[in-house]
Amino acid sequence: MTQQFSQRIASSLELRKRQGLHRQLSAVSNGNTTSLRKYNQEFVNFSSNDYLGLAADKSLAKAWQKGIDIYGNGSGASPLVTGFSYAHQALEERLCTWLGYSRAILFSSGFSANQAMLFALMEKQDLLLQDKLNHASLIEAGLLCPASMKRFHHNDISHLENQIAGNTLVVTEGVFSMDGDLSPLADIAKATQGKAWLAVDDAHGIGVLGEEGKGSCQRAGIKPQLLVVTFGKAFGLSGAAIMCDEMTGEYLTQFARHHVYSTAIPPSQAHALNEAVNIIASQQWRRDKLFELYHYYDQQLGTLPGYQYTQTPIKPVVVGDAAQSIQLASDLKQKGLWLTAIRPPTVAKGKARLRITLTTNHTKQQVEQLATELHSLIEG
């Protein structure tokens, strides 16, 4: 009987290879910058989620180093034991002041925050409605939580409205990570008002969109009951927080198992994250630079087959065939451009793509180089 595990694993791996969907880790240097290195070759990195260029920012590094000097290395325990420090408290308070919520519950990752939110809040008699293109962390949590889950057509308000019934939680993303498109948050908020709670995962909108980088919800003029902000994209670090009211925050403190039973993020990291909020809120030039690059990107690539217009740093070029997307990414690497081919199951079958991301640290010359090579490879 013990052979079954090995046989199942081997069979699954072989099938994935035959389907052209096998993925591999690739160790690189400077992957958090626009000048990635692998062995002795340098690439322009168009695959990072470091939208505001903070992942290698010297002032943010100094804030983390100062945090280590003050608080030491790790937190040493879970938040409800001794892992919750003054640095964590200061970060929560700063997030609340910035985003207009009463509580911020911290987690080690956006994946954990999303799963904790749904596992803690949903019960058997509840209905969970999710956008069809929500992140895997949300869909998986929806499948595993006690509630009944249904998925509404992507950004389809009518389909959503027709499914709301009873005690309903509606979950969407502010910016969708593979297509870079925006959720119609104002319309969703109107559809759910008085009928359902709304949760928004703004992993790819926070820091980039809205006044002071307050994200998709501020841009849309709404305030959902639950807002998930992650620190691994525009913040340049890692971790996440669920923003909510006082009572919901207390409930999550008691019942969100990913929060209760996980070691708290290092206090030095919380100290650095506080500084990241200050940088994001005050340095508008970072977003202005991004917007300039969007416009230049559209000028250079607007006629390319597979081009998709977006109002975010995520710029997909839809290829369709998985094998072709892999070949394109490989050909671009030969030209010194690092792009990632995104294939099923991350995206739907027939929707394989190159996922291009822009950051504040890119230059127009780098965008022009990318455009030249893409036009050459795709149009011949």
Give a description of the structure.
- The protein contains 15 helices and 13 strands.
- The protein has helices spanning about 5-20, 60-70, 80-85, 85-100, 110-120, 135-145, 155-165, 185-190, 215-220, 245-255, 255-260, 265-280, 285-300, 320-335, 365-380, and strands at about 35-40, 40-45, 105, 125-130, 150, 170-175, 195-200, 225-230, 240-245, 315-320, 335-340, 340, 350-355.
- The strands form 3 sheets. It has a 7-stranded mixed sheet with strand order 3-9-8-7-6-4-5, sandwiched between helices. A 3-stranded mixed sheet has the order 1-2-11.
- With about 375 residues, it is an alpha/beta fold.
Order of helices and strands: HEEHHHEHEHEHEHEHEEHHHHEHEEEH
Flag low-confidence runs.
Answer: none
Coarse shape? globular
CA-atom Rg in angstroms:
21 Å
Helix content: 40-55%
H/I helix tally:
15
Major sheet details:
7 strands, mixed
Question: Structural class per helix/strand content?
Answer: alpha/beta
